[in-house]
Amino acid sequence: MTTNAYIQEHYPLLAAIDTPADLRRLPEEQLPAVCQELREMMIHELSQNPGHFASSMGAVEIVVALHYVLDTPNDRIVWDVGHQAYAHKILTGRRDRFADNRKMGGLSGFPNPMESDYDTFIAGHASNSISAALGMSMAAELQGTDRKVVAVIGDASISGGLAFEGLNNASNNKNNLLIILNDNDMSIDRPVGALGRYMTEMTASKGYNDFRNKAYQRLRRGGVIGDSGKGIVLRFNNAMKSLLTGQQNIFEGLNIRYFGPFDGHDVLRLVKLLRDVKDMTGPKLVHLHTKKGKGYAPAEDDPATWHAPGRFDEVTGERAKSRAEYEPLKYQDVFGRTLVELANANPAIVGITAAMPSGTSMSVMQQAHPTRTFDVGISEGHAVTFAGGLAKEGLHPFVAIYSSFLQRAYDHIIHDVAIAGLPVTFCIDRAGLVGEDGVTHHGAFDLSYLRCIPGMVIAAPINEHDLRNLMYTSQLPGHGPFAIRYPRGRGVLVDWENEMRELPVGRGRLLSDGDAPVVLLSIGHIGNNAARAVTLVKAETGVAVPHYDMIYLKPLDTALLAQAAARARVLVTVEDGTITGGLGSAVAEWLEEHSSTCRLIRLGIGDQFIDQGTPAQQHHLCGIDTESIARTIKSCL
To answer: DSSP 3-state helix, strand, coil percentages of the chain (rounded to 5)?
Structure first.
């Protein structure tokens, strides 16, 4: 834990900043030193308590300039995703708690309005900032509130469909929204050099804008141009800027005033720029070039690895070893290697992911079969509909998307895949409770939101062999949409390679038998906790509890369920997902339909959102860790 004394000694400027109001009392010439201290603090803290590193390091000057110029929290800053917002947290009253970032009971890893008034909107999924900030800006307009609203969005997030919808709507409604485009790897570019810098700065200056408005008024009075509302004004403004700078882009095509690109790491110039543009009327976008990992050489050289690097030596940059040779692989790595095996044998297989090739290990397929692998960017809905188009023409797409992100493509799953019964395999990574990323990233709902879709097969492997077998089964002829969900992290088998075989759809299995009046039903990787609980109960009581692995949630193995209900006084279901709508609900529905007198206890995620913590802590909180399951079983004996 970093002490106050340590902060006072190593970060004297930050130690005096409890709120952005304190920051605004500093002279401008001290802002570069504030940025340096923020970077040093993040390097120190994140080397010991891992989090999202490179993005937050790259956004430090943007954070400082925004809080220095704006009257936060009255003025609103809406962060997109929030990977870039650690400096924001430190400056907004959470400096002394930053050591508990992403820990249970500590700070959320993402902006969260329930944590601070400075966090204006939930920021865990990409591309929502423009829409949310536009709503806030228009609310201020309707309510007559003097409030500036800024959306900070990255170059990857702005490629998402929702961001384009927000941009389009911003150009058609009265608002004063300011969009900051934090561009650290984008192909939007323009000529550089002294003249280019002069022109971009001039177009944001008060003098230029006074000249532009006077020119417009004179031409209108002279009848040279008409006056048909704000559209003609914006088109005139953009035409004048294009004439002066030789530059035109998509934002100006949407009648959003564009300024830039500027150096996003020159904090003093950013302060001047924001002061120039913040009071301008109408929607506007400031384009800033930044570098991920800025200020820490290893992260600058390899920003992808340093997105979330885990623990590292802050002096040398050496990262902690992530695994020993005897440890199981991560489920995602088993998925990636298995997909290549299947693709080698089946030329119809293609791979799709939405901006997460390394996060899902689709990168393994990308390397082996580059022409058959597609990264569509942060566009989950498009990924699914694109897969539907491929499947319609005879290919078999494997779509790898995190569970919480697949929620964004729900309509596309139904409308563009399921109705037509198209053979698309959804490989749903990060299913269940995911740990430190917290509430916005848990894969809590996929079992429930998929179970009601007609024709959808839903399966969950208890180990790596079953993951491989399910992937093999899904690409066999005759199947329609097929969902396979698996958790974040490592599996349970060191020897993960097996000769793949078909797992009959809708068939579960008995994992361990017994004569107890309590029968356990589980689905997916959490079944390993259930199996250990059965072993623990046997050791403590001598009672053997039957345990069934359902494998498939849909279609449900009703023959197995009838067998279990016939021998049990109590059925206990265990799932790493929301209880409402999942395995427990499916069993409850079957018991009611068959007038069973068997008592049912459902274990899983209750009707609540689960905050950050370790997966073990979260499993305990939800009663699905080994000890809690064993305790539930013993209470029924």
So the answer is: 45, 15, 40
Q: Check residues 255 and 368 and name the one with the higher pLDDT.
A: 368
Looking at 485, 518, 537, the residue that finishes a domain is 485
* Statement to judge: residues 89 and 232 lie in one domain: no
Residues 99 and 214 in one domain: no
Spot the catalytic one: 102, 408, 451, 488: 408
Indicate whether 350 and 481 sit together in one domain. Answer: yes
Whether residue 380 lies in the annotated active site: yes
Q: How far apart are CA 469 and CA 459, in angstroms?
A: 11
DSSP strands (E only) in 14-132: 76-79
What is the residue range of 602's domain?
Answer: 509-636
What percentage of residues in the chain have a pLDDT greater than 90? 75
Which phi and psi (to 5°) does residue 575 adopt?
-150, 150
How does pLDDT run across 463-520, given as a tens digit for each residue? 999 999 999 999 999 999 999 999 999 999 999 999 999 999 999 999 999 999 999 9
Q: Please tell me the predicted confidence (pLDDT) of residue 244.
A: 47
Same domain? 34 vs 152: yes
State the chain's mean pLDDT as an integer.
Answer: 89
**570-578/552-554 β-pairing:** unpaired
Kindly state whether residues 445 and 515 are assigned to the same domain: no
Q: Please report whether residue 163 resides in a domain.
A: yes
Whether 575 is catalytic = no
Q: Model pTM?
A: 0.85
User: In Å, how far from its chain's centre is CA 80?
Assistant: 10
Q: What separation in angstroms does the CA of 585 have from each of 210, 600, 633?
A: 65, 10, 19
The catalytically annotated residue of 95, 102, 241, 292 is 292
What are 48's two structure tokens? 């010991």
**pLDDT one-digit tens code per residue, 155-167:** 888 888 899 899 9
Tokens of 124: 């865990």
The order of strands in the sheet holding 570-578 is 509-512, 547-549, 518-522, 570-578, 599-605
In a domain, 296, yes or no: no
Whether residue 271 sits in one domain with residue 396? no
Q: Which pairing describes strands 149-154 and 482-485: parallel, antiparallel, or unpaired?
A: unpaired
Residue 196's pLDDT band (boundaries 50, 70, 90)?
very low
Could you tell me which residues are beta bridge partners of residue 448?
A: none
- 441 and 354 in a common domain: yes
Query: Which one of the listed residues 61, 380, 436, 464 is annotated catalytic?
Result: 380
Among 429, 380, 406, CA closest to 157: 380
Adjacent-strand bridge partners of 149: 76
- What is the DSSP track for 220-265? HHTTSS---SHHHHHHHHHHHHHHHH----HHHHTT-EEEEEEETT
> Residue 157 to residues 129, 152, 274, 292, 477: CA-CA distances in angstroms?
9, 10, 22, 15, 37
Considering 78-92, 151-165, 251-265, 497-511, the range whose residues carry the highest mean pLDDT is: 497-511
Please say if 408 is a catalytic residue.
yes
The pLDDT tens digits for 272-316 are 999 999 999 999 999 999 999 999 999 999 988 898 898 999 898
Q: Structural domain tally of the chain?
A: 4
Question: Looking at residue 155, which CATH number applies to its domain?
Answer: 3.40.50.970
Q: Does residue 322 surpass a pLDDT of 90? A: no
Has residue 66 got a pLDDT over 50? yes
Pick from 110, 94, 103, 88: nearest CA to 48: 103
CA distance 262 to 270: 8
60-69 helix and 31-48 helix, angle to the nearest 10 degrees: 130
Residues 476 and 558 in one domain: no
In 3D space, the residue among 42, 57, 59 whose CA is nearest the CA of residue 7 turns out to be 42
The tokens describing 221, both together, are 């009075």
One-letter amino acid of 384: V
**Short-list 518, 505, 510, CA closest to 598:** 518
